[in-house]
Write a structure and sequence with these properties.
By secondary structure, this protein is mainly α. It has one domain (2-169). The chain is 90% helix and 0% strand. Pfam families: DUF2721.
């Protein structure tokens, strides 16, 4: 009976890192998807910049080029943050898996190393916190990019609407009286 209690205690102790492993894995999947979208966005913006540079002689092109370069900078910053978060999440995953293994090893080898799985878990939790901070920063950059793009789009719409108003009034409205 004593052996069963010890076995259950070991398995119970190993459950906590497993839950953290699942959480880390879920974050890795979603971060990987975000990274691939960010890279695709950077490629799309890069292609748009190439097209604008090919048509450099058109009027009004510089504002559009500036917006696209700004969007490329946002996408690049997002990709760097996501890459750092992915690295942190993979290291975190390593610590949690090592913690699971070390719990069993410590049980069979010597209880004087009982502190070792705790240190591994703490390192994993620290990595998880760091990755979360990076993901929050990346979300902020993504929001800034969307805000910048929408602001530019609204400015274009306003210029278009003003041009439409000018052309919709009759000719006599614009003449000045002498």
């Amino acid at each position: 009976m004593d052996t069963l209690d010890q076995t259950l205690a070991i398995l119970s102790a190993m459950i906590t890192p497993v839950v953290l492993i699942m959480a880390s894995s879920s974050l890795i999947l979603s971060t990987s998807q975000r990274l691939s979208r960010s890279i695709a966005r950077a490629r799309d913006v890069s292609d748009a910049i190439k097209e604008l540079l090919a048509q450099a002689d058109q009027a009004g092109n510089s504002a559009e080029l500036h917006v696209h370069i700004q969007q490329l900078e946002f996408a690049s910053r997002r990709a760097r943050l996501l890459q750092a978060a992915m690295t942190s999440l993979y290291v975190t995953l390593f610590f949690f898996v090592a913690s699971c293994i070390s719990i069993a090893v410590v049980y069979f080898v010597s209880s004087r190393y009982a502190w070792f799985p705790i240190v591994l878990d703490l390192l994993g939790v620290g990595g998880l916190c760091y990755a979360s901070i990076l993901l929050v920063k990346e979300s902020s950059v993504a929001l800034s990019a969307v805000h910048s793009e929408m602001q530019h789009t609204m400015q274009q719409f306003e210029r278009h609407r003003q041009r439409q108003r000018r052309h919709s009034y009759p000719f006599w409205f614009w003449r000045t009286r002498d």
